UniProtKB/TrEMBL annotation:
Its main location: membrane. One of its GO terms (cellular component) is plasma membrane. The chain crosses the membrane at residues 6-24, 31-51, 57-79, 86-107, 182-204, 225-251, 271-293, 305-326, 346-370, 382-403. Residues 13-403 form the Cation/H+ exchanger transmembrane domain. It comes from the Bacteria. InterPro entries: Cation/H_exchanger_CPA1, Cation/H_exchanger_TM. Signal peptide: none annotated. This is Na+/H+ antiporter.
Amino acid sequence: MSNVGRFEFILLLIVLIVGLELVARKLRLPPAAALVLGGIAIALVPGVPVIGIDPDLVLIVFLPPLLLAGAYFSVWHAFRTHLLGILQLAVGGVAFTTLAVAAATRWLIPSMPWAACAALGAIVAPPDAVAAKAVLKHVPLPERMTTLLEGESLLDDAASLVIYRFATLAVLTGSFRPVHAMVTFFFLALGGLVLGGVLAWVWIRLLTRVRDRILSITMTLLLPWVAYIGGEQVGVSGVITTVVAGLVLGWRQHDVFSADERLRWAAVWEVLVFVLESLVFVLIGISLHAIVLRHMGTAWVAQDVVLPVAGIVMVVLVSRFVWMLLTEGGRVAFLPRGRRPGWRGFSSFVAIMGWCGMRGVVSLAIVLALPPEMPNRDIMQIATFVVILVTVLGQGTTIGWVIRMTGGEPAHPRGQRHHLSVSQARALIARSQEHAMRQLAYAPDGQIVHSRLLEQYAYRAELAERFSHEQQALQGRKDAHYKALLATIDAGRAELLRLHRSGEIHDAVLHQLEHELDLQQMTAEGGLI
């Protein structure tokens, strides 16, 4: 296939992705599940071209932006509070699953080298935040669970990639030194931590001097690849470098970006991440096509694939529950007796966290990057795909049922900091705005100069304060207010378009006024949340 043909085929895949996303919303399926099923369907269509994918290109194209986006939107305070639990899952959990899968694979496929077994374990070990977020978007979870799942997905990628690289190197060179690997891992992680912080600091300094939204968005689009490639070139972990850069930039985003830049940046990245995530899920189906063609009509699948792959999937599922049981049991054992959760809370936590082990983008990207010289490469790719299929379709479509059956955790466990609700925070913000306006409303001689603004902000503060205490009673009036406001915005937009289409205003006037109406609409729609 020519380069033009490849580009046209990728465009066709994006069109299919949009259709699959719409189908998923219509059928109330997790988007990841629909994409996986779509990938299978594409692989089975006769005449689908087989696209040769450069393994190194897969990692460098897909991983950096997905890692940085996940880190950028992380909640830093919660991440820092639960750092120990995140590390237990991201490093300990990945290592435990890798060892369990490696041992099971070696037992099921005795001819497979230990290093290759470890590489497979590292590929299927890291749960994926993309799949988890897609599944849990409409399923509320306690803050601790959400933070652990999101934080785990950021750091487990680094741990699994480092293990994968060492295991792959051992397969290709035939030598492996555990002590050297552990020391190297420490320096890779430390170097990535330092380099990521330095790069983020440099980028923030540059962004504060570039007050052009196009240039600032372009610079942020470059950062993940600069961090990842820079880390790999320097000899440290490119994954950790990218994650740290994303965490620091996300922490400083409110100082670095203007409101307009932040809105546009978020929109650009939302589209980019959606396309990249979706393409990775579909590309695994295309790669499986080549495997099916090579082994079609042979007894290889029934004799050498079904049983080992089924065993590997079972070990992946069970090992996460075992690790959650061990780590959470150890944590609870060291808690003071008065703060220990009951058996229902403990079992609920283990069940939900164990069932939230959906694999996805990272595992797909790594398995696509397997070198052709890797022993049993086809089995490793099939096993990875089946693990993703089972976890996304099986766990992803039933996690809501598991949460309802186990009862979840209390909304505010004992000892956990209580957070203000949205309405309470809005009331405090409105009071601070009223206070600032009250100081600015009067001239030095005491004469009021902003009476209308003072009246507006005082009314907003009073209304927000009242709503925070009487939310249920006033919810209907609040919704009616914002719906009426949206109706007036729609009327204004219709008049604006009429003026433009009749030639009475210039395009520049249209864009300026439409931008103002968009901001008003965003505010009104936010009030309905």
